[in-house]
């Protein structure tokens, strides 16, 4: 800024002074500087009102914004850190955790960052869905109206208006109203509840309704988290059962193959026994034709007979049976 534009320089300094006054009101009051004043109609002076701060509207129905990986780390570690350091102030705890986060490697941070990314994707999907609802459109209309009201109040701010001139004649009605009462302000927007009730926005009833809905949402989120945890446990159990079933199926197949092999071995033994013992003359009561179906019973009866009281009479038969059995080569049969 050069000396050729003193008016612009003065305006810039005035803006800086006013901004500094708004940001640090305690500093200026302690210095003893008198507050700006304006003259009223009766000649008295009163303090010029401060400019209103612009209040940001919050959409209570909008999805909750996701936490960053760093904030997730703070929330997880803060309570444990506070227990270990009970005398440390809150801001010192946050500072210490921030230094710890900065010293962590990317691999140590990755879990928190991955969780934050998942929450961000969920938030984007929920926000896209919410932007299609009537509640979002009503809030945008309300936001526009509040913005217009704020602009209008800024224009009517006494700090932006010239001081009133003291007149000698008595005060009369404003030429704008001319004694006619102003019309009642238009009713504000309303929100339709689940039961169809119209609730005025920013009324006590609306705030209570919003708190109740927020409480219900928290309960639903908790329930959803419990169900997700249960689903994760069930999925692990299902995977474990699938692995067990696969292992059992393999064992069943292996056992069936083993049974087939043993059955084949048993059939071969029966054929050999029928062939070898078919040449022996059995006693009269055991003289039925020997075959693969009755060889088990016949040989059992023969063994019982030879071990009985009359076995001495059949010494030759016992000897021939021993010779047949001794010549059987069971290992080679299996091969």
UniProtKB/TrEMBL annotation:
DNA-binding segment(s): 63-131
Q: Does the keyword Nucleus apply?
A: yes
Instruction: Give start-end positions of Basic residues composition bias.
Output: 46-56
Q: Does the keyword Nucleus apply?
A: yes
Q: Which Pfam families does this UniProt record tie to the protein?
A: HMG_box (PF00505)
Q: Which GO terms describe its biological process?
A: regulation of gene expression
Q: Which residues belong to any copy of the HMG box domain?
A: 63-131
Entries under CDD domains matching the protein: HMG-box_HMG20
GO CC annotation terms, alphabetical? nucleus
Q: Where is the composition biased (Basic and acidic residues)?
A: 1-27, 138-166
What UniProt keywords apply to this chain's record, in alphabetical order? Coiled coil, DNA-binding, Nucleus
Q: What is this protein called?
A: HMG box domain-containing protein
């Amino acid at each position: 800024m050069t000396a050729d534009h003193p008016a612009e320089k003065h305006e810039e300094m005035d803006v800086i002074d006013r901004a500094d006054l708004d940001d640090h009101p305690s500093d200026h009051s302690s210095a003893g500087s008198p507050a700006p004043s304006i003259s009223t109609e009766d000649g008295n002076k009163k303090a010029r009102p401060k400019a209103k701060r612009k209040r940001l509207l919050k959409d209570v129905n909008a999805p909750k914004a996701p936490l960053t990986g760093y904030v997730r780390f703070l929330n997880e570690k803060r309570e444990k850190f506070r227990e270990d350091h009970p005398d440390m102030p809150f801001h010192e705890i946050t500072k210490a955790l921030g230094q710890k986060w900065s010293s962590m490697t990317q691999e140590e941070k990755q879990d928190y960052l991955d969780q934050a990314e998942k929450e961000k994707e969920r938030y984007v999907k929920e926000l896209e869905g919410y932007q299609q609802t009537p509640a979002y459109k009503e809030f945008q209309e309300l936001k526009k109206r509040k913005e217009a009201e704020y602009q209008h109040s800024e224009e009517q701010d006494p700090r932006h208006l010239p001081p009133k001139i003291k007149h000698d004649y008595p005060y009369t009605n404003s030429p704008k109203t001319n004694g006619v009462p102003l019309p009642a302000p238009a009713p504000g927007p309303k929100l339709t509840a689940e039961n169809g009730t119209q609730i005025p926005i920013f009324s006590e009833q609306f705030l209570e309704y919003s708190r109740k809905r927020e409480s219900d949402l928290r309960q639903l989120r908790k329930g959803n988290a419990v169900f997700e945890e249960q689903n994760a446990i069930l999925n692990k159990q299902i995977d474990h059962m699938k692995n067990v079933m696969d292992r059992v199926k393999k064992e069943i197949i292996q056992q069936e193959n083993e049974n087939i092999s043993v059955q084949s071995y048993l059939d071969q033994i029966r054929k050999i026994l029928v062939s070898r013992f078919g040449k022996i003359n059995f006693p009269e009561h055991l003289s039925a034709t020997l075959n693969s179906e009755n060889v088990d019973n016949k040989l059992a009866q023969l063994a019982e007979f030879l071990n009985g009281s009359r076995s001495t009479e059949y010494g030759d038969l016992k000897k021939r049976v021993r010779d047949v059995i001794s010549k059987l080569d069971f290992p080679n049969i299996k091969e």
